[in-house]
Amino acid sequence: MPTKMRFEKALLVLVVLTALAIVGQRWVLLETFVVTPDKGFDSRLHDDSPSGGRSEVELLANSGDYYEWRCHLRNGFAYPHCGFVVQLTPSHTQGVDFSRYRRVKIWLDYTGPNDSVRIFLRNYDPRYSREDDDTTTKYNQLEFSPTPGQNYYEFSFDDFFVANWWLREKAIPPNLSHPEFDNTVALELQTGSGHLPGEHHFVMRRLEFIGQRLDTEDWYLTIIVVWAVLILLFLGYRILELTGEVRERKRREQELIEVNQLLDSRSRELEAKVKMDSLTGAFNRDGIEEAIKVGLWAWRHSAQPLSIVMMDIDHFKRINDQYGHAVGDDILAGISALVKEHIRETDLFARWGGEEFVLVCRNTRIHYAQHIAEKVRVMIAGHKFDQSLQVTASFGVATLAGGRTIEQLFKAADDALYRAKEAGRNCVVAEADK
Q: Are the beta carbons of 385 and 330 closer than 8 angstroms?
């Protein structure tokens, strides 16, 4: 019982933990990367002046609460632009792995003539990037239209695509032209692709990358594996525990068997004396009671046939009168020994009273019981007893059928025995033989 209670408590704890793991997977697996001024990221401004443009950009604030910059786009260059770059790691070649991330949230205010703003996640890959040239990092681009009065936006990583101008400029082959986020070194906010001249004002308060530490499928697989391991450990423990219990029980059972054998031996001796006829050694009426009960149960519940054979020694009174009761007793004992020696182990032979005997044949149909009776009849008739006496016997055979009771069964066998005597004795008559 203590082991069972411990197991039930452990199972309850596991079920609760599993439920929490399933319900709370969103929070357990949630992984965020936050960009704010107070995080201490390196940042810088850039414009189109290195390419011959006349645009200018200036930083207005880099406090603990927000980044603020202003960009003046001027004509004189085909693609005027300016932007703000946040270096996500100290290294320009070892960035952040965003491959398991799914969402991007940005808190941004923009005012200016453009109707769009661009976000670039720049990924470093030695297949196309060079450490001495920041423009060789892949420009994974997202462009969206800010709404006046709205300062919060949320996007999926699936919304990003690789900037076409970067693919053309760097002659990137098609197999490397898809978005990559496994080594993102920098985040860049830039004026939109409309390139409209004028003043562009930006305030970025916060940017969040949201992902999962582990895929949902892997998370459920982990739960299953944990359950499987714990179940195997418990089964192993229970097998060892049960093996010990079995050994202890066997030891105790062996002790009980030895004690019971002593008691049973004496009990059987006493029981045998009670159920045996002292003269013939055959069972008495009490001795066959259990056999009849078992046979009746088997007939009623398993349809196993039960037949009985009533046997009466012919003219036994004449033998007693002529040769004396001692000779008669010897004949009764001799017949009993002869019959018991030649019947089946499942058959029970009993002295019914005086010179009358009964043979209980379990799981035996009437025709086979009749055959057994005929075999016994021939054996008795051909046997020579003391003083070379030969005797015969008459037999009546009956079987259980329909709703017949045990009393009716014995009455039918007794009637058949009576007909056998009327037929001249030394014969077998079954209840169906009329």
A: yes
CA angle 412/417/420 to nearest 5° reads 130
Catalytic residue (one of 68, 180, 188, 355): 355
Do the beta carbons of residue 168 and residue 174 sit within 8 Å?
no
Contact by Cβ (8 Å): 142, 119: yes
CA–CA distance, 69 with 67 (Å, rounded to integer): 7
Written as one letter, the residue type at 127 is R
Residue 30: what are its φ and ψ, rounded to 5°? -60, 135
Q: Enumerate residues 6+ apart whose C-beta is below 8 A from 339.
A: 282, 349, 357, 359, 376, 379, 380
List Cα–Cα distances, 106 to 14, 153, 397, in angstroms.
39, 5, 103
Nearest to 370 by CA among 307, 305, 306, 423: 307
The per-residue pLDDT string of the chain (434 residues; one tens digit each, 9 = 90 and over) reads 555 566 667 667 777 677 666 665 566 678 899 999 988 899 999 898 888 889 999 999 887 789 999 999 998 788 899 999 999 999 989 999 999 899 999 999 999 999 899 999 999 999 999 999 989 999 999 999 998 888 899 999 999 999 999 999 999 999 999 999 999 999 999 999 888 899 999 999 999 999 876 666 766 677 788 888 878 887 888 788 888 888 888 888 887 787 677 666 666 655 656 678 888 888 888 777 777 887 788 888 888 898 999 999 999 999 999 989 899 999 999 999 999 888 888 888 988 888 999 999 988 999 999 999 999 999 999 998 887 889 999 999 999 887 788 889 899 999 999 999 999 999 999 997 54
Catalytic, 258? Answer no
Contacts of 200 (CB under 8 A, 6+ apart): 70, 71, 72, 73, 82, 110, 111, 112, 113, 114, 191
**Which residues pair with residue 83 across a beta bridge?**
46, 190
Cα 352 to Cα 29, 261, 288, 291, 410, distances in angstroms: 87, 31, 10, 14, 11
Residue 142 φ then ψ, to 5°: -135, 125
Residue 427 CA, chain-centre distance (Å), reads 66
| Those residues with Cβ within 8 angstroms of residue 365's Cβ, 6 or more apart along the chain or in another chain | 305, 307, 399
Q: Match 């075999």 to its residue by tokens.
A: 375
